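To: structure subgroup
Subject: Chain for Friday's discussion

All,

I'm putting the inputs and outputs inline so they're searchable in the archive.
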Amino acid sequence: MIAKQKHNLRLTLPTALAAAVLYCSWPLGYYLNPKASAHGLASELGAVGQPYNWVFISTDVLTGLLVAVIAIVLWWWLGRPAIRWLQVALLSYGVFGILTALDASLPMHCTPSLTVCPPIQNDHILIVHGVASIAAAASLFISVSALWYANRRERFQQLMLAVLALWGLFGLLSVLFFFVPGPGYLAQRYFIVLCSVWMVLLPVIVVKTLQVSKQVRVPQKIR
């Protein structure tokens, strides 16, 4: 049983790497759909009617499923008693995966960078798509914050502060491009890369944190 758990745990890193690569699929747009990639958001690559949209839809759906699986495996390995903030980090990480798959499963029907789209209130699918996308981003940020709090006095403190700073930079760029016209699509691509990096970092940090925690508790059980 223990050997099986360790085997499943080892698979989380390559699975996370695969999810990160799949999620960061927007560079393919420069070859598969140059028009939409020129100034459009990544969501436009998966819009209905766009060339090779199935590629970008399937990569995001698969990303979401892989992230959800990673969260389940790590939650199972976490066991009881569990570190509360690790639970929050894993739960929000898994929610991000589910919402990402949902978001990709409801592609846009119009590409704002290429055509004039109807008002958003007339497109209910676009509303759900947008809500799922925003909620997914918020969930991933919660996982960052929770894992930082869980490791605020541990060896990953500086790394977590650096990650939070990078997320803060994205927040500043988002506010800037909201009020001042600018290449908002570049800010989104930066955000996608940041999410991909975090997909890999979270399972690594969680596993290392749990290993240290378990090493501390083992002598007490032996006694």
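Points worth raising on Friday:
Confidence is low (pLDDT under 50) at residues 1-5, 215-223.
The radius of gyration is 19 Å.

D.
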